[in-house]
Structures are given as structure tokens and as C-alpha cells.
């Protein structure tokens, strides 16, 4: 605010105009254009006439795609048999529980109900 006799003049910050800086002149489209790295981790900035939004890649979330998510992959967890899905920076990857393998943990590596195979530490000192 700059005093000018009995009145004042507003020196508006970038993106605002009007007698009291009440009009936003920087449209959401221009926000995306002027800030190409606004959305992090490869997220895409989109906008309409009222706001902008970051569309995050699988494995990321948050207003600016700034958070990694390892709980489940978007939109659903593609891993079978209790496997956990995470995004490794390029694609969704399944981390399989013991006894399962395959890209989606779909292959069983142990015979069912073989408790000794599943838990080899049941017998101490290497006894069978």
C-alpha cells in the first residue's frame, strides 16, 4: 500500500490486479505453464477455468505428487497371495510373501501344509 495524499494506491504482487489487488490475473493454465515442475515425480499439471490439479503417476500421491505410497498400487493392488505392491520409479512391482513368486506372486513355491518347509526354525539345532 502506497499513501498518496488523502488516498492510497495498491502495488499488487505478481498475479493480482485491481484497486485493492482483488482480481487474480494468473489463470490456472498459466500456473501450469509457468511452473513446469509444480507436480513432482512425473505428475502432470492440468487445469480448468477455476483451479489446477496434479495427476500423479502410480505409486505417488499428494497435492503435488510429493509422497510415495507403498501400501497399495493405484487403482488396486495387482499382487496375489498377500503380496505388497510398490512403485519403483518406473512401474508397479510386487513384493511376495515367503512361499510365493512370480510377477504378481501368483506361483506357489512350497507345498501346502508343509509346516517344516514354511518355518524351518521350528526344530532347534538343525534337528529334523
From TrEMBL:
Superkingdom, natural source: Eukaryota
SUPFAM superfamilies registered for this protein in UniProt: EGF/Laminin
Pfam family, one: EGF
Gene3D superfamilies the record matches: Laminin
InterPro entries: EGF, Notch_signaling
Keyword Disulfide bond: yes
Disulphides: 12-21, 56-65, 96-105
Domain EGF-like: 1-22, 28-66, 69-106
Keyword Protease: no
Keywords, sorted A to Z: Disulfide bond, EGF-like domain
PANTHER family: NOTCH LIGAND FAMILY MEMBER
Protein name per the record: EGF-like domain-containing protein
Species whose genome carries this gene: Rotaria magnacalcarata
Amino acid at each position: 500500500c502506497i499513501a498518496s495524499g488523502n488516498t492510497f494506491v495498491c502495488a499488487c504482487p505478481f498475479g493480482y490486479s485491481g484497486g485493492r489487488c482483488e482480481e487474480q490475473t494468473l489463470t490456472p493454465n498459466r500456473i501450469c505453464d509457468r511452473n513446469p515442475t509444480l507436480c513432482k515425480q512425473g505428475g502432470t499439471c492440468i487445469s480448468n477455468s477455476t483451479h489446477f490439479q496434479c495427476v500423479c503417476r502410480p505409486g505417488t500421491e499428494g497435492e503435488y505428487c510429493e509422497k510415495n505410497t507403498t501400501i497399495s498400487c493405484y487403482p488396486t493392488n495387482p499382487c496375489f497371495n498377500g503380496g505388497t505392491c510398490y512403485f519403483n520409479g518406473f512401474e508397479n512391482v510386487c513384493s511376495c510373501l515367503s512361499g510365493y513368486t512370480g510377477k504378481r506372486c501368483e506361483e506357489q513355491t512350497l507345498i501346502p501344509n508343509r509346516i517344516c518347509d514354511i518355518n524351518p526354525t521350528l526344530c532347534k539345532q538343525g534337528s529334523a
